[in-house]
């Protein structure tokens, strides 16, 4: 096949990285990157959701009563680590490069994840889960910064939602694995196998990531022009396209990247509103789904049936993602996000009114559909709102805020088990509605816009 002809800029006229990526088009490089990042994203989903499935077995092994402080601590430890990891690794990715953090966090996640399977005490298990969270807290913001910077403008929103949809794959895998292991081992033993096997997909993801170059946009922002052109050359070869024969337009150099820059000028309002969206969505999502297996079991459902139900709910996430991938390009990121959050608020109240097992399953499926669609839209929207020198830092900050909510959510979600269902679900519904209002108040639509390299170039068009 003859490579497509690429019209180059006039000799000597600099071209931006976005222009080059758009000209090289969508091809095998982006699909391969999606598969590699998606595999790690699925592995991270398994680690994040793991304790909700493992907790019944851990409780049996160590004699923990439902809703005790130790049980809450086990659910919160991963999120506490993710809080610190998101803030630290997001900043490091803007200072040291996407690829370095890309590889380091996956390696540490595998090692700490495996160590938890051999923990002899609850204290050491909590420590292992905290360190696992610290590692995977860095993969979340860095993966999205990397993906956003390699995908052509016209496809970027859809690809970011596609990446988030691998979360459903991870949910299916961990639920299916938990279900299978519950039929092979007694609960007091199955949780160790679950923790150990859940860490293994990260090994495959690590090996696959070795062939991915650093982001050319990040390299250029750090003054590494030759390396940026080399990375673009790899995209061109993979996509069988010609690299434009023109110098790359270097963005204004940033002397030093610090998290404080997220709260300067016009970025202040944007960062605070995004943080509110991430907090509200995370509090409601983890508050419901971290405790849902235990809630269903407390309603008298057999453990194997609990895992099968969770599998069905994970399947309900897939159409939520699929619709979000279409809507972010049809009606925009902001409207899609606000719409899904509003539907989630409605779903929380319908869950409260559910009086039969079928109604509980149906309303849970609606919540799963809406909340994961909202996550897809939010992950597409957020990296487009921060300039390149602060993109991973910004993603890390708002992701860390979400982990703050995740730390609170086990305590709030425990209300589901103590008969205060209406209080918990009302709080979650309010969180979703406030998050929807904050998403709309950002006032910026990034659909069809190139990624900003400076604050002045950040999307400013309001609908």
UniProtKB/TrEMBL annotation:
<feature type="transmembrane region" description="Helical">
    <location>
        <begin position="126"/>
        <end position="147"/>
    </location>
</feature>
<feature type="transmembrane region" description="Helical">
    <location>
        <begin position="159"/>
        <end position="181"/>
    </location>
</feature>
<dbReference type="InterPro" id="IPR036259">
    <property type="entry name" value="MFS_trans_sf"/>
</dbReference>
<feature type="transmembrane region" description="Helical">
    <location>
        <begin position="73"/>
        <end position="93"/>
    </location>
</feature>
<keyword id="KW-0813">Transport</keyword>
<keyword id="KW-1133">Transmembrane helix</keyword>
<feature type="transmembrane region" description="Helical">
    <location>
        <begin position="193"/>
        <end position="212"/>
    </location>
</feature>
<feature type="domain" description="Major facilitator superfamily (MFS) profile">
    <location>
        <begin position="33"/>
        <end position="447"/>
    </location>
</feature>
<feature type="transmembrane region" description="Helical">
    <location>
        <begin position="48"/>
        <end position="67"/>
    </location>
</feature>
<dbReference type="InterPro" id="IPR020846">
    <property type="entry name" value="MFS_dom"/>
</dbReference>
<keyword id="KW-0812">Transmembrane</keyword>
<dbReference type="InterPro" id="IPR005829">
    <property type="entry name" value="Sugar_transporter_CS"/>
</dbReference>
<feature type="transmembrane region" description="Helical">
    <location>
        <begin position="305"/>
        <end position="328"/>
    </location>
</feature>
<protein>
    <submittedName>
        <fullName>MFS transporter</fullName>
    </submittedName>
</protein>
<feature type="transmembrane region" description="Helical">
    <location>
        <begin position="100"/>
        <end position="120"/>
    </location>
</feature>
<feature type="transmembrane region" description="Helical">
    <location>
        <begin position="272"/>
        <end position="293"/>
    </location>
</feature>
<dbReference type="Pfam" id="PF00083">
    <property type="entry name" value="Sugar_tr"/>
</dbReference>
<keyword id="KW-0472">Membrane</keyword>
<feature type="transmembrane region" description="Helical">
    <location>
        <begin position="335"/>
        <end position="354"/>
    </location>
</feature>
<feature type="transmembrane region" description="Helical">
    <location>
        <begin position="423"/>
        <end position="442"/>
    </location>
</feature>
<dbReference type="InterPro" id="IPR005828">
    <property type="entry name" value="MFS_sugar_transport-like"/>
</dbReference>
<feature type="transmembrane region" description="Helical">
    <location>
        <begin position="394"/>
        <end position="417"/>
    </location>
</feature>
<feature type="transmembrane region" description="Helical">
    <location>
        <begin position="360"/>
        <end position="382"/>
    </location>
</feature>
């Amino acid at each position: 096949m003859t490579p497509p002809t690429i019209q180059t800029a006039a000799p000597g006229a600099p071209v931006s990285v976005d222009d080059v990526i758009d000209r090289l088009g969508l091809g095998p490089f982006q699909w391969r990157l999606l598969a590699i990042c998606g595999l790690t994203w699925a592995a991270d989903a398994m680690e994040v959701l793991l304790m909700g499935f493992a907790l019944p077995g851990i409780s049996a092994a160590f004699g923990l009563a439902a809703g005790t402080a130790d049980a809450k601590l086990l659910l919160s430890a991963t999120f506490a680590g993710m809080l610190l990891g998101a803030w630290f690794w997001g900043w490091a990715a803007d200072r040291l490069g996407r690829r370095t953090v890309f590889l380091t966090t996956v390696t540490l996640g595998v090692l700490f994840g495996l160590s938890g399977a051999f923990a002899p005490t609850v204290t050491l298990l909590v420590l292992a889960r905290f360190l696992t969270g610290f590692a995977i807290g860095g993969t979340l913001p860095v993966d999205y910064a990397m993906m956003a910077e390699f995908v052509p403008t016209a496809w970027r929103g859809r690809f970011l939602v596609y990446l988030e949809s691998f979360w459903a794959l991870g949910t299916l895998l961990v639920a299916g694995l938990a279900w299978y292991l519950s039929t092979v081992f007694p609960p007091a033993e199955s949780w160790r196998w679950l923790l150990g096997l859940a860490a293994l997909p990260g090994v495959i993801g690590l090996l696959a990531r070795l062939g991915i170059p650093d982001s050319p946009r990040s390299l250029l922002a750090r003054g590494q022009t030759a390396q940026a052109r080399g990375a673009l050359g790899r995209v061109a070869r993979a996509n069988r396209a010609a690299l434009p024969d023109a110098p790359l337009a270097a963005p204004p150099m940033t002397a030093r990247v610090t998290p404080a820059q997220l709260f300067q000028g016009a970025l202040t309002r944007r960062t605070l509103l995004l943080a509110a969206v991430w907090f509200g969505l995370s509090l409601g999502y983890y508050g419901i789904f971290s405790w849902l297996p235990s809630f269903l079991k407390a309603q008298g459902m057999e453990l194997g049936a609990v895992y099968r139900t969770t599998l069905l709910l994970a399947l309900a996430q897939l159409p939520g993602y699929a619709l979000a991938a279409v809507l972010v390009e049809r009606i925009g990121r902001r409207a899609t996000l606000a719409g899904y959050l509003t539907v989630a608020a409605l779903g929380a109240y319908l869950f409260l009114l559910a009086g039969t097992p079928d109604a509980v399953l149906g309303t849970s499926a609606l919540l799963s559909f809406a909340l994961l669609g909202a996550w897809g839209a939010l992950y597409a929207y957020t990296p487009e709102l921060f300039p390149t020198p602060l993109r991973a830092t910004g993603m890390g900050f708002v992701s860390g805020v979400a982990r703050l909510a995740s730390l609170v959510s086990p305590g709030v979600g425990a209300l589901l088990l103590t008969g205060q269902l209406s209080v918990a679900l009302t709080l979650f519904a309010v969180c979703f509605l406030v998050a929807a209002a904050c998403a709309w108040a950002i006032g910026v639509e990034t659909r069809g816009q190139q990624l900003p390299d400076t604050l002045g170039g950040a999307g400013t068009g309001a609908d």
